[in-house]
Design a protein that fits this description.
Length: about 280
């Protein structure tokens, strides 16, 4: 924002195990209070025998509290799932492998220093964080079902404005990394963090036509129409190239993506597509 000092990134102090456990207990106490309050406002008694929770809820005490209290598992992927609370105003992301601090820090940073709408983060634990629940229809559904031509043009204009804001936030020393200077994450390898490229020297021909002067900027990293998440600092081409890998080409949003960015990255797209196909088959 004009006239305001903007830090390059924010790294919170590490918490010891005892304080992390206390964070989890406090989150569970908060859930219980919200459940009791919700039941009282609806005039419903607290059940003596709660229903059997979702199978994934048994893997973590906080998720069990949420589901028993009337919450709902709204998304699940491997050891990570999203649960809304009984009040349907907040959503908790739970990951048994641990929450990546860069994800939360990037959301808070963008919320404070740009005009991009980002869900407010309320509580953060070692394996979970709770944020504002956005109930609006996803762009993937709205693009084909409810948006007229004028609305679509407005969406494209707004996305271009948001992307331009992200691109003013550059990585320190040009490093490719997650937010806070941590290891970069490559979603092609199930979100494995690594500081080294998996490309072999024999595959150098793949990248021979790619530009080597990309700006390293704050990147959404997965601009599919159903996603609103933030990643870290990556080459500027990634923002446009990545959504076209396995995209739903029948959805008109992906055709409009070309109008959001000032430059095409055809060579980068070919490399991304080839690399994705090869690594999927273990090459």
């Amino acid at each position: 924002m004009p006239g305001r000092s903007r830090p390059l990134w924010v790294i919170p102090p590490a918490k010891d195990i005892e304080s992390r456990d206390e964070d989890l207990k406090e989150s569970m106490r908060r859930v219980r209070r919200l459940i009791r309050e919700k039941l009282r406002t609806q005039g419903k008694p607290v059940p003596d025998s709660p229903p059997s929770p979702h199978s994934l809820a048994n893997s973590h005490p906080l998720s069990r509290e949420l589901v028993i209290g009337g919450g709902e598992v709204i998304d699940e992927k491997l050891s990570c799932w999203m649960l809304n609370d009984a009040c349907s105003t907040r959503v908790t992301k739970l990951n048994l492998r641990g929450i990546r601090p860069a994800e939360v820090e990037a959301m808070r940073f963008v919320s404070e220093y740009t005009t991009i709408p980002v869900p407010q983060v309320y509580y953060v634990g070692e394996q979970h964080f709770t944020m504002e629940l956005i109930k609006d229809e996803t762009l993937q559904k709205a693009w084909e079902n409810t948006l007229c031509v004028e609305d679509r043009a407005l969406v494209v204009h707004q996305l271009r404005h948001f992307i331009n804001q992200l691109r003013t936030i550059r990585s320190q020393d040009g490093a490719i990394c997650s937010f806070g200077g941590r290891s970069a994450v490559d979603a092609r390898f199930l979100y494995v963090e690594s500081g080294r490229s998996p490309l072999r020297p024999s595959n150098d021909f793949l990248v021979s036509d790619m530009l080597d002067d990309h700006e390293i900027v704050l990147t959404h990293s997965d601009l599919h129409a159903c996603n609103i998440t933030l990643a870290g600092f990556y080459p500027e081409s990634l923002e446009l190239v990545r959504p076209f890998r396995g995209a739903g080409w029948t959805n008109g949003f992906y055709k409009e993506l070309l109008n959001i960015f000032p430059q095409r990255y055809d060579a980068e797209w070919l490399v991304e597509t080839a690399f994705y196909q090869w690594t999927r088959h273990g090459r």
